Amino acid sequence: MAVDQVTEDEAAASLLIEEAVLIRFAEGSREAFEWLVRQYREPAVRFAYHLTGNYHTAEDLAQDCFAYLLVYPEKYDYRASFKTYLFTILRNKSIDSVRKRARQQSLPYTAESSSVHNPDEGNPERLAIIREEDVEWRRRLHQMKPDYGQAVYLVDVGQMSYEQAAAVMGRNQVSFKVLLHRARKKLRQIYEKEEWDCEVNGTGTVISG
Asked: pLDDT at position 209, please?
């Protein structure tokens, strides 16, 4: 059997397993809920970290989302994939958190970020999420409008379909595709500027994200 066929079969089997778990989750199964947490906790923390720039905040927001799901399992109605539903809740909570932090005039993003990059903290998961090679990628996304960065992240990092990513951002697919096109164009401009700056400075190299 071809490799791509095996991959398709595995993906189909995984989807069937998740569908069965979601039925049990909607019925109030704690075991099914814990399966979903194991499956989606790390992607949730990564997305929240992208939105907030703070690992501790990202952990708290992901935990809040799962707590909400545990209390209100009946609110998931299967019209969207579970990941789409989870990321939609997480995006809304992250936006609220960032706005609240701005109102409280807390430390700026760069100062907060410096504390969570300390390797001496010894948290393997944290170090996996906040990898050195992610720094440049995240920096480029944060040079763009927030919606641009989110669109690129959801599709290119989160591996979501246009339909799923559009749902997370509360847009129709046509609007989302236009947004993503503009975001990728802006990202190319950022890369081109970096390449030009490297040539001008005589380094000849650009750090990849």
From this structure: 42
What mean pLDDT comes out for the span 54-65? 92
Structure-token match 């490799």, residue found: 3
Q: Is the pLDDT of residue 19 over 50?
A: yes
Reported in sequence order, the residue ranges of 8-68 that DSSP labels E, i.e. its strands, are none
Distance, in Å, from the CA atom of 14 to the CA atom of 52, rounded to the nearest integer, reads 31
Indicate the length of the chain as a whole number.
209
Residues 107-120 have a mean pLDDT of 40
User: Which pTM does this prediction carry?
Assistant: 0.73
Residue 143's nearest CA partner among 181, 103, 105, 110 is: 110
9, two tokens:
């079969």
What is the number of alpha carbons within 13 Å of residue 5 lying toward its C-beta?
2
Nearest to 45, CA basis, from 37, 55, 35: 55
